[in-house]
Amino acid sequence: MLTFHSTPPLALYIHIPWCVRKCPYCDFNSHELRGPLREPVYVDALLADVEQDLPRVWGRRIDSVFIGGGTPSLFSAESLERLLSGLRARLPLRPDMEITLEANPGAVEQGRFAEFREIGVNRLSIGVQSFNDGHLQALGRIHDRRAAFAAAEAAHAAEMDNFNLDLMFGLPGQTVEQALADVANAIALQPAHLSYYQLTIEPNTRFHYAPPTLPVDETIDAIQEQAWIQLERQGYQRYEVSAYARENRRCRHNLNYWEFGDYLGIGAGAHGKLTDPAAGRIHRLWKLKHPRDYLASAGTPTSIGGDEPIQESDLPVEFLMNALRLAEGVPATLFNERTGLPLTVLEPAWRQACADGLMEADPDRLQPTPFGLRFLNDLLQRFMPG
Hints:
Elements: E1 10-16, E2 18-19, E3 31-32, H1 39-53, E4 62-69, H2 77-90, E5 93-103, H3 107-110, H4 113-118, E6 123-129, H5 133-138, H6 145-157, E7 163-169, H7 176-188, E8 193-198, H8 206-209, H9 217-233, E9 237-240, E10 243-245, H10 252-258, E11 262-267, E12 271-276, E13 281-287, H11 291-297, E14 304-309, H12 315-323, E15 330-331, H13 333-339, H14 347-355, E16 365-366, H15 370-374, H16 376-381
Parallel strand pairs: 1-4, 1-11, 2-3, 4-5, 5-6, 6-7, 7-8
Antiparallel strand pairs: 8-10, 9-10, 12-13, 13-14, 15-16
């Protein structure tokens, strides 16, 4: 039985699964919209879902909300306002909390940015991916270069200055020069935050069954090295493997994940992780994945797709696969606070990782070296059970 002296911070993730078109690289639970968007019905389901989960989080405050998808910005501000009002009536919410909404470039959505701000959304995450029309076509995106610029400009016009741009590299046929041009274009738009990550081929995607030709490792390495320098010179600090932020603009919601905080997940296929100090366990639960099944059962026990405890033997690597994504790592004391395990269970592997140059030899922090951050999978292997 695990021993906890407190519960971690709690975040809320809300999943809206529909999008205009499924991208060939996407392995998220997203579904092409075929027919009218049933916004009122889905909001009803989300509120029934959170009511069902209330006993799991009695008395706990929600510190951040992230509405992801799919393309949540397809929903109207009216529907999202009803959702947020319903959440406020059911859960204690932090007064100054971060509320993030994912959005994709497109003229219809951009006109809603000011409306989203008025209902309490204070952070946007805009899925630009590239500013190169050829690469956008290869990625199956429905927007072009002009729409990508327009989306960021619309965010500024709506006084939604705390926005993130999602940008990918290692795209089919992409050169170092093209990748750095994307970074320069992103910087010119002055986002508060930039998520910059490599395209990977995931199972059960169209790219998996018909793989494109991707840049070689040498090109990828050159992109990463030069993009990091370019971003740092412009005031963006790399605080996580794929995240760069201006001062005081780190994503609170994602930091909660990386620091092994708790999160409640509502919506089709949404996942949660909750600590139960009384039972001495941490468990993961998730909702039914397909929107049809979810809508038919939301608010009832049959909507739960699964509920499983994290095994004690898996907790060290579960914690570290999040915490070691942070360039500055975390205080060593956080391991015991968030897992209920003594820090000594990490000591042999930690010492070896330090000797191999993968972790900093500071007993008060669990922190990767720059080398360890670059080869994070190799570092985590040191802590795998068995």
